Amino acid sequence: MPTDSMIRLLTLAPRGNQKIEWIRQHMSVLDCIRERFAETMPFENKNIVMRLHIEATTACLAILLRDAGAEVTLVQADPLSTQDDVAAALAEECIKVFGHYGSTLEEHQSYQKEALESKPHVVIDMGGILTHLLHGECHDLAGNFIGASEESTTGVKRLKNMLANGKLKYPVIAVNDSLSKYLFENVHGTGQSVWSSIMNTTNLVVGGKVVVVIGYGWTGKGIARKAKALGARVIISEVDPAKASEAILDGLSVMPLVEAVSKGDFIITATGNQGVVNSQHLNVIKNRAILVNAGHSNVEINKCDLEAVSVESKEAAKNIRQYTFEDGRKVFLLAEGRVVNSAAGDGQPAEVMDISFALHAMAVKHLIDNPDKKPDVSKLPRKLDEYVSSIYLHSMGIEKDELSEAQKNYLSRFPF
Amino acid sequence: MPTDSMIRLLTLAPRGNQKIEWIRQHMSVLDCIRERFAETMPFENKNIVMRLHIEATTACLAILLRDAGAEVTLVQADPLSTQDDVAAALAEECIKVFGHYGSTLEEHQSYQKEALESKPHVVIDMGGILTHLLHGECHDLAGNFIGASEESTTGVKRLKNMLANGKLKYPVIAVNDSLSKYLFENVHGTGQSVWSSIMNTTNLVVGGKVVVVIGYGWTGKGIARKAKALGARVIISEVDPAKASEAILDGLSVMPLVEAVSKGDFIITATGNQGVVNSQHLNVIKNRAILVNAGHSNVEINKCDLEAVSVESKEAAKNIRQYTFEDGRKVFLLAEGRVVNSAAGDGQPAEVMDISFALHAMAVKHLIDNPDKKPDVSKLPRKLDEYVSSIYLHSMGIEKDELSEAQKNYLSRFPF
Amino acid sequence: MPTDSMIRLLTLAPRGNQKIEWIRQHMSVLDCIRERFAETMPFENKNIVMRLHIEATTACLAILLRDAGAEVTLVQADPLSTQDDVAAALAEECIKVFGHYGSTLEEHQSYQKEALESKPHVVIDMGGILTHLLHGECHDLAGNFIGASEESTTGVKRLKNMLANGKLKYPVIAVNDSLSKYLFENVHGTGQSVWSSIMNTTNLVVGGKVVVVIGYGWTGKGIARKAKALGARVIISEVDPAKASEAILDGLSVMPLVEAVSKGDFIITATGNQGVVNSQHLNVIKNRAILVNAGHSNVEINKCDLEAVSVESKEAAKNIRQYTFEDGRKVFLLAEGRVVNSAAGDGQPAEVMDISFALHAMAVKHLIDNPDKKPDVSKLPRKLDEYVSSIYLHSMGIEKDELSEAQKNYLSRFPF
Amino acid sequence: MPTDSMIRLLTLAPRGNQKIEWIRQHMSVLDCIRERFAETMPFENKNIVMRLHIEATTACLAILLRDAGAEVTLVQADPLSTQDDVAAALAEECIKVFGHYGSTLEEHQSYQKEALESKPHVVIDMGGILTHLLHGECHDLAGNFIGASEESTTGVKRLKNMLANGKLKYPVIAVNDSLSKYLFENVHGTGQSVWSSIMNTTNLVVGGKVVVVIGYGWTGKGIARKAKALGARVIISEVDPAKASEAILDGLSVMPLVEAVSKGDFIITATGNQGVVNSQHLNVIKNRAILVNAGHSNVEINKCDLEAVSVESKEAAKNIRQYTFEDGRKVFLLAEGRVVNSAAGDGQPAEVMDISFALHAMAVKHLIDNPDKKPDVSKLPRKLDEYVSSIYLHSMGIEKDELSEAQKNYLSRFPF
Predict the structure, then answer these.
(1) Inter-chain contact B231–D208, Cβ cutoff 8 Å?
(2) pTM of the predicted model, to two decimals?
(3) What is the ipTM for the molecules in this complex?
(4) Which of the 8 DSSP states describes residue D185?
């Protein structure tokens, strides 16, 4: 019984169950792993705390972990991405859920700490938040702690910084660095879901428009590629010369952001950093530009600066806030500057999370199977990464070739 | 005063107004024409009946016509595409509105006839329905009737058939045959909005999937192009050899539908015809295929056949009906087989309708300025078509070149 | 015996034959029509004069016409596109050939008139040149003349002008307006062969470069599409507002040419007009820009202006002339400003010409079967166009669907 | 004086010089580095042997090394890629050149050893051949040897194998693993030049055709992407599940090769391995398939098998050999199975080699600056890689952004 859950609205559970059932049909990689783990029970007597967006795809991972023997706790990664009906459905499935849509910052932070009270052996983390708490404020709850599987690029950067400063005490698997994950999620999943949520929120045409993408990492690349595919002219702003060169060779324009914002109809942040769009840019931004954050948290677009330069702000449509500047220019901010595909959409497509969560499941198993790894931020072993790809191909009915023995040998020989 | 309107829910008007205000900012071509017509009042003392989807973009056209002096009546084209809040907002703007979301077939048909009671001078029609009624059942309301501006391909085909049979008594402008319209709406608008509504409804990834598009006319072409751009493998089924050849040259596969449905993850109709997907195809359709109609009405996918071969049918998610066959295969039908971007989305993007409705406004003007045209189904004169393109370019801040006099002359000369 | 041929270098014939044999394997549509016509001999006792590029693909059309019973004469369309080895091989095949690589303008013009001495029943023309001569200077050779099948856009424009001025005395089939022709040749064939000849001539990378395409007709569209596909950023210059709008919606930039030339790494004309790039543009052109004509004749880039502003000109590489301006800027002109894919490449890919020449064969048959058509410039009847598409699909092993009887009827019915 | 050079045809030098001068204008990154190195002379008194294709781009690298103070020797990587005119021109520039077009295998092998007689400090190697010789047969010439900069994937694999077996005695920089190199060369350069040489050799259309690409590494990816861009339907054959998954998500088909060859119009190897296309595939290969090697050496397509199953073989056109099978099927092999863009084209586009060779120049400098590195196969340090990207951006006139101090700090902080 979910007596310690924050979920009061259990009447929402049926709708949550319907969502989960629909999604589950499209997460066949996870389902295949779940079936195998349900037999071998690799997570028996282990406590696992997941910090992720509370939505139907996450529910499928939670159920896998439970069926593999774990005690599972789920805490929200973002108050505005929490789907209360899914939370309610999970609570009925013996999974502890902390979070509710629209909770205050205080409630949100307090949920994180309450979740850790289950004394996790492993955490599936987003942003490194739980891992960081277990090093400091919640240090007393780290007794069982073996290590973390980290979801986000920002989290990986922060934890690598802890490692560099000698402060990291546990091993971390950077699932985001897995080949499968960037292929499926960052390039394809995010690109699609960011545009599907923008199109659905604004009902504006993308073809013929100028799209500015800030940051040409995996996320930015996915967004830019789909934008081009939808018929937009794309401008990239970057700080890394190699990524800027890649953008040029991909047929895109590259220019400093302060120049780009005066041309952009859609301006999309994907840097993982803060204050990327600020007053310097708002001074010259194109009238009626649509501002979108597709990167991280709600700090990439500086809302304080936005409010400071505006004489009026109002809701123009659902998830669209209209700011009017003194000189009459307007800009439209989607989803209050939160990550658009979660906050104004259903998050990543189901099959993308299928791969991503399969990698987390393998990472959790790798940590539990190797409890004495030294502190490090490392990739998932290539073998496990390929294992997930293989299940994916199998689920799609795709066959691949094999090297012959002669071919295996060939590459080590010199012709003369 | 909207006393004869069907709209009872005037409390919805504020939300409708908010929608219209947002959309209006993105319909600058229409707005530019509206400003010019508000001065010259070309539609003074004219009654205009529009049969279109009742949504915010349509509202902007209605307001233009009103500001140009017309008495405007709007009747729904589809009960499931009617947005009651927009209807309510329009009712407050002295526009007669007939329609409500979810009305029965009887109510729907009766609305069409009631709308004609305003004795239109011109109708903006979809499917040729109003024009047909004015030739037959509502013949007594045709006293003022000058001609029609027709929106849909299906309508044009029907009216051309009437023309061929000597039954057409009035001139019809086939706005769908305008260059601007197929560029903006059919290729770009429909392609985008069909995918945005599919992605939003299903939350499934398109990349890596097999998409079958039935019909490679303008609509099908737009859908196929965006599908390829989103990373899908695309199969076309066609009956016309030239269109099939075009698909091949566009890098797509072409095969008979009965073969294609066994490979398709998404199967999308765009033919304007009936019974395109029927029991012959359901017998061999791929398990978990998503069935989508993006063409016309709700007849392209044969729902009777679908129900006949199923042992169970239930709602899998909002706008997704799951059918289970005897052999265990499932298929998912979106939006009950109605046109997906209207029935499970917000219809065409605003700027697409901006062009389309600008062409209707020009067509209405052309009809009113030339009241004695003989019965025919013709294109909008090329000059008016280019006029709309010019306003579009102007609104985007784009400049174009001009031919020099020498160049104008060059093409008529022979070198020796 | 080709005693009246200009071809002296019959030793080249074997190499020409090898070229033709290779190409013939890839022209299966033409070969299928040739087999059918060889049985029915529809051109028996007819004289046909072809004015086309003398290359292997053209040879296959000449052989078809001969096998269908005609007396065939071939005259070069451009001295720099003539392949002497192919000419030699054709001379051995009882086809009269007029032309040699590098002939002077005088020789070239004289060839045209000599070719007409065979008193053609039908001409296959390019640029309307033969048709024009038969109206004037060679009027006395027009005794048998029934009509012409015209290949180029420029020719069609000129002949339409003659029609408008009441000067056209014979029917002309504008093969270029056939659906199949623009699909295969203009969009796909020209796009590919222009880029393949540019890449082969310059060995420069296209990805990451700025490509300016002047003219967004079928040819320009094909070039722009492939440029984008190869990773370039594409700028269009246009005079027609509808075409400029289409470019915008296709995700391309549009700007006046004088602005575009300052940004372009490759500047490509595709207008069919003269003096498109002139001193006004050379004043501001980007240093090291590559100038390419892909449109018509050698007049699109004004070479007089180019020489006037240059202090030096020399051959930088085969088919590349380097001009140095007073201020030190250089520009490179490909193939002396002649149509690049013919003058610095092998012309259109074989399968593209397969379709194009199949349409000419059908056009010739249509003219001969209907000898009393009145003067006009008209399309090939849609039925013949579809016939060619059908043979193409068949040759590719592609099957298409058929409408059911119910579906054929459906489109003429109204629902109520 | 090139008295010890194999070059007898010094009359070719002017044409070689013209080629080099043209190419040099398009290698601005190399030119910028050359200018800097000509001042600091970092390679003074060092002997450098380069094993590369002898063409104009390679010449520019040789000149840079010479201007930086080195004694430079160049030996051909492939007898069929050697351009005698470029070799002649280089011989005049005080660079020792070993190689001539069409040399026998014996001559070719002997050239390699003669080249090493200059006792190199550093080699720029392709295939690890020189490095391997310096470990064995030419061990006595290794007295000065510091290390190698390796160009090809195959070479890297072989040298890594030597490392794994404890046999590698010197450090090797795998330039191919540089970010800049795979961006510019493998993805963009090879993709473009492979297609440009295929199109130029065959004059066949790519749009609408089925292209089979074997191997979805960087090279295969580049070829597949351009094929799709040119309008082909692309099938990938792969042995690695992650790469196969990537292909699927990129919208391509994946199937076992033995199935794919029966559908392919173009079949292109890009594996770096041997016997990839063999009798097993020839048994079922599509009639008239074009066989192309874009990977490595001339072993990917098994020519013995090809000859064994053929009843006839002849030259169909320049660089196209036609094999006829017993059952009448024909296949066409390009460039005798050698790497197509070198053997039937001008190799990589100049600007691609500009980056690639700039990386080699930096690698040579890194080796000379760090003469005591231990045996290893490692990447070029990221800093040097970014240095080359920065010069590229600068040469293109592209500006990029910089992180603010606040942003640099942000990524190391946790929000709570």
Answers:
(1) no
(2) 0.87
(3) 0.84
(4) I
